Amino acid sequence: xxxxxxxxxxxxxxxxxxxxxxxxxxxxxxxxxxxxxxxxxxxxxxxxxxxxxxxxxxxxxxxxxxxxxxxxxxxxxxxxxxxxxxxxxxxxxxxxxxxxxxxxxxxxxxxxxxxxxxxxxxxxxxxxxxxxxxxxxxxxxxxxxxxxxxxxxxxxxxxxxxxxxxxxxxxxxxxxxxxxxxxxxxxxxxxxxxxxxxxxxxxxxxxxxxxxxxxxxxxxxxxxxxxxxxxxxxxxxxxxxxxxxxxxxxxxxxxxxxxxxxxx
Amino acid sequence: xxxxxxxxxxxxxxxxxxxxxxxxxxxxxxxxxxxxxxxxxxxxxxxxxxxxxxxxxxxxxxxxxxxxxxxxxxxxxxxxxxxxxxxxxxxxxxxxxxxxxxxxxxxxxxxxxxxxxxxxxxxxxxxxxxxxxxxxxxxxxxxxxxxxxxxxxxxxxxxxxxxxxxxxxxxxxxxxxxxxxxxxxxxxxxxxxxxxxxxxxxxxxxxxxxxxxxxxxxxxxxxxxxxxxxxxxxxxxxxxxxxxxxxxxxxxxxxxxxxxxxxxxxxxxxxxxxxxxxxxxxxxxxxxxxxxxxxxxxxxxxxxxxxxxxxxxxxxxxxxxxxxxxxxxxxxxxxxxxxxxxxxxxxxxxxxxxxxxxxxxxxxxxxxxxxxxxxxxxxxxxx
Amino acid sequence: xxxxxxxxxxxxxxxxxxxxxxxxxxxxxxxxxxxxxxxxxxxxxxxxxxxxxxxxxxxxxxxxxxxxxxxxxxxxxxxxxxxxxxxxxxxxxxxxxxxxxxxxxxxxxxxxxxxxxxxxxxxxxxxxxxxxxxxxxxxxxxxxxxxxxxxxxxxxxxxxxxxxxxxxxxxxxxxxxxxxxxxxxxxxxxxxxxxxxxxxxxxxxxxxxxxxxxxxxxxxxxxxxxxxxxxxxxxxxxxxxxxxxxxxxxxxxxxxxxxxxxxxxxxxxxxxxxxxxxxxxxxxxxxxxxxxxxxxxxxxxxxxx
Lengths: 264, 383, 305
Known about the structure:
The structure holds three protein chains of three kinds.
Chain A: H1 4-30, H2 49-52, H3 60-91, H4 97-109, H5 112-125, H6 132-157, H7 160-168, H8 173-202, H9 205-210, H10 217-225, H11 231-263
Helix pairs in contact in A: 3-6, 3-8, 3-10, 4-6, 6-8, 7-8
Chain B: E1 13-22, E2 25-35, E3 40-44, H1 51-59, E4 66-71, E5 74-75, E6 86-89, H2 101-111, H3 117-127, H4 143-155, E7 161-165, H5 173-190, E8 193-198, H6 201-207, E9 210-215, E10 218-223, H7 225-230, H8 235-240, E11 245-254, E12 258-263, E13 266-271, E14 281-286, E15 292-295, E16 304-317, E17 321-328, E18 332-339, E19 352-358, E20 363-364, H9 373-382
Parallel strand pairs in B: 3-8, 3-9, 6-7, 7-8
Antiparallel strand pairs in B: 1-2, 1-4, 4-5, 9-10, 11-12, 11-14, 12-13, 14-20, 15-19, 16-17, 16-19, 17-18
Chain C: H1 16-50, E1 52-54, E2 64-66, H2 71-112, H3 117-128, H4 135-146, H5 151-158, H6 172-196, H7 200-208, H8 213-224, H9 226-242, H10 260-270, H11 274-298
Antiparallel strand pairs in C: 1-2
Helix pairs in contact in C: 1-11, 2-6, 2-9, 2-11, 6-9, 7-8, 9-11, 10-11
Pfam family, one (chain A): BPD_transp_1
Main location (chain A): membrane
Transmembrane segments (chain A): 12-33, 68-90, 102-124, 136-155, 176-199, 205-223, 235-254
């Protein structure tokens, strides 16, 4: 529309790039219906069996359950800690702000393998047995920085006049926070929590260093990769994909509808 | 009646020796001010003059570096914002987006656990004629409606003092004029003390009983709008409130009745009671609409100041009147507004003219012009 | 009446600034303690571990004692410098490739689709869709698509485009392909975010001032989207240089494509050579911090931090 070059070339290019991005998803989905024997590699025939008997693959469902528990727990912890940090950074003046910001930024710039190895070395030194607890501690750590960044952006975009209006209208500092600031931050906190959960659920590298014999969904896939991942894993991944997509699309539709309603 | 329950008397506001320093600059310099109860007071000035800071100090949103704030005779200098009997209508309205219009208006009453908060809120909404949108969210309202909700949210608390921080700044011109009248009407109905901050001189003059013109953290002049306009005391006020032709000269003679100033060889007279000073260098001035322009040679009455030898440089026709800029070799540019009462059409550029005005309309200032008039006016508009 | 609700004003001085900082400390303390305990302390123990030597009194594999064995670093660098080099070369190529592939996508969504909010949202969802499916599974999917038995390789071989003994998987190409693929959304999102805020009137002003479309892009659009490009490249480069899934034997890599991540993992979890894993981690971390600092300074986007 705006530039002749982009008129047809750019949409076509984007369409091709998006198809490339989506190929593995389609592949994973299709192979969840594969009537496989031992290895789910070549196409053997169509079946619903994998979908109706997901937990047949040994260890898969417990690994998936572990991933959910870890995701929820570490998300709750990271969201609480991170929101407090974000509020302090965005709303208060204190000495050492720069150092605190840096301390929050560095974990995001640290390769996961270093974080994983560092935590594992720490747990090893302290003689802490690896398992679900250590994985939750580790996930809370790397989700924390992402929560701070997301919530802080939301706090900074709040009009300070809203809080001033609260003070002007006889609300004590605590009332200003709980009746004005916090309700307005909820969307930011929710998206931070969703991001945390997604990061935790899909994390492999840090988990693998700190999980010991406990398996999560990603470590299950990694361990089975050498001898063939069961198609039931594809079923779970496809289900998670469809659910996530549904949540994202619904929330988009709702925000859009709400924005439209507000205009009228 | 809806108004009756709001008709509590407002309280005096007294600022004494207020000073506010921010890192790197001085926002307010030793400000003393008394706003009588029940009055509509305007703080007028260009952006950065310290008027909003003054308002925030009164509201308790900003502590003064020095000085005291008294409301109704009580020292509230160290009282937190949420304990002060003061409410503010914010420039951006600051309506809580997650609460309905009614919840917004009832917010202050509920924080003070006042019974019947919702019915009081409805009453306040009726006063601003918005009770029918009580259940909507603020974002669903137009700018003018949001402004009125912000007003209702403040006056429902019956504050001793209502502060308005450029409340009409975000509205378009027509709506702004309409809201000015409405605000004025509401103020006389509820009888509260209003302190209104604005950079719009017309807004200040239409609404306020008393206007304080602020510049560089100081009050330049304070008085009724007509007094300020007719008799400005400083060059800043003369330029900021309307337009002025200013002439700088030296006093050549002064009597009890009049002061005569020599301006580049021309003798101009100012009544002694309209001049701040009567010796030395003196800037005198006159409003463009008090001046008359005469083509060719004309007889001038004795009680007029006359300057001759001008040439029309610019003509700007605006229907009701025409603005002429007349260039004088010795005095520079003089602006004249002429009503287009007779159908003769405007005088053409290049015509040789003289300009005269009644001595009674002349004023003598305390100081001299230091900045360019139009630049200052533009700054004020942008602020 | 109106004033009745207000207690008589006292001149009691309340220490507002003090209180502010006390709240700040309460908010900061738990999070900072957590970061100290589970981020700083592990880094310190990693550094300590990197100086350890095998325990002379124990024959157990994996038993080490601290002895300021700085020679660990000499040995590590001497043995693994080619792998470090390979890791960073792979990561840089993948970052550049992701930028080249991702920028037009971001431009399409942020500028071309401007004003069509539903289409923008739809395309964005497609871009992030790979995140919704397991990282390992989508990488495995590529392994199978590009594998020796996959239809792509068989077709290419039957058309004699590829030699009969050729492979795609297990080569540097497939590892870089996997890295690029997996991190494209990280590149697209921040670039999109800065292009989305770009005022299109700048572009109109530029073309009004006689700039050709290419000049407009290079002189106006690209500089204004630099913050997005910087964060996108960092978000791609950092995880790519430490990644070991794509390069692993079981995924897209082979013995000749090992990256630092693979070596850290092998030393730590298989060989139980903790000091060597720690040495590699510390060196990797130092190099990456150096690169990030230099890059952020150079591009003048320090407020990113």
